[in-house]
Amino acid sequence: MKRIYFDYASTSPIDKDVLKTISNTSGAIFGNPSSIHQIGQIASKTIFEAKKSIASAIGAKYNEIIFTSGATEANNLVILGTYNYFIKNNNKRPHIITTQTEHESILEPLKSIEPYCDITYIPVSKDGLIDLNFLTSAIKENTILISVIMANNETGTIAPIKEISKIIKEFSARDGSSLGGKINKSSIYPLLHTDASQALQFININVEELGIDLLTLSAHKIYGPKGIGLLYAKNLLPKNNKTLNSPINPIILGGGQEFGFRSGTEDVPKIAGFQKSIEINEKIKKQNYKKIKELNNYFIKRLKNIHQNLEINGQDLSSNKRIPNIVNIYIPEKDKESLLISMDLKGVCASSGSACASRANKESGVLKSMGFNEERINQSIRFSFGKFTNKKEIDESIKIIENITK
Fold first, then answer.
1. Would residue 356 show up in a list of annotated catalytic residues for this protein?
2. Which of the listed CATH numbers 3.40.640.10, 3.10.20.90, 2.40.50.140, 3.30.390.30 matches domain 16-276?
3. What is the homologous superfamily of the domain 4-12+285-405 according to CATH?
């Protein structure tokens, strides 16, 4: 049976050129990057070149890139690393701000420190946009971190990261430091973090222009390998040449790789594959955006011919506050689990939301935070498209959905 894959927000198939890069690197560059001999130094150079290339794509410096096992680890490093650094160097109870619609890799580590840290969750509107006025009033003197996902993984809604950065700067310029007491212009808090795993494929990201201190990326969302991601961490503390100095404590200890922020022998082939996937993405980003937006619009138009009463959860397709590949659809009186199973048996792959939450059979926290009731949540499905999606697949999927739901 031919499979029609409409779940690109969960993961994407590896690009053939990325796969070739991984294969070539695996065969030719096998040394340990920490070894001082030539074979090890070839591996080390490969990592260095990857960092330079990726940093250039997001407006960063090579020594601000920390490779991790994926976005989940990077997000854990942000939450736990900034928290641990702060409590080690301060005797105040910290405060962290995030949204109600974050990925589980942000929300779960926050739950683990909630007894020792004040946490504020920014509410969102029915269309998934965060309340900036609420955010402005929520920042306190002990706020150390604000983490807001750049493009939501269930609805595609884009957060106003640049505006959030401006709010932080305005707060920091007030009389009184973020740690309390008299003004302290040297304070680095609050830090701004964003998970851009879903966003990079479609949004031009420049960390300096956006005012970002910490940024998460994942390779497998942009046709790269699974098991590799990164954290961009701005040099915020006194610098020491090539050493990254950022207010984060490592959460994986050992040999001190990745400037001491992430121990463990680096996976050079996957890093090279990550580099290649970003280089390809930067070349096709504009045309990919246009193509996928047109396919998404076509899909909804065809689907509405079958179900006139369907509604989109989140931003309307015409909005510029959404990435074009994700559409979360409410189809009244159609149970999502039954529909997803029936579609899968006919060869169409979609999802009910985040793959992590779906596997655990959790209700969508994103849709719940947007104010939707249990009935609507249980009748909502996420379709997400990619660069390999084509019009023929959409036509075939519509016929299948029509036969299942008639």
1. yes
2. 3.40.640.10
3. Aspartate Aminotransferase, domain 1 (3.90.1150.10)
CA angle 218, 50, 33 (to 5 degrees): 105
Q: How many residues does the chain have?
A: 406
Report pLDDT digits (tens) over 54-113: 999 999 999 999 999 999 999 999 999 999 999 999 999 999 999 999 999 999 999 999
Measure the CA–CA gap between 72 and 227, rounded to whole angstroms: 10
With a CB cutoff of 8 Å and minimum separation 6, the contacts of 333 are 379
User: In angstroms, how far is CA 151 from the centroid of its own chain?
Assistant: 7
pLDDT of residue 177: 47
Helix (H, G, I), strand (E, B) or coil at 77: helix
Annotate 77-109 with b (16+ C-beta within 10 A) or e (fewer).
bbbbbbbbbbbeeeeeebbbbbbebbbbbbbeb
Cis amide prior to 190 (ω within 30 degrees): yes
The model's pTM: 0.94
Query: How far lies 282's CA from each of 54, 70, 202, 285, 307, in Å?
Result: 10, 20, 9, 5, 37
Split at pLDDT 50, 70, 90, the class of 406 is confident
Single out the catalytic residue among 179, 356, 400, 404: 356
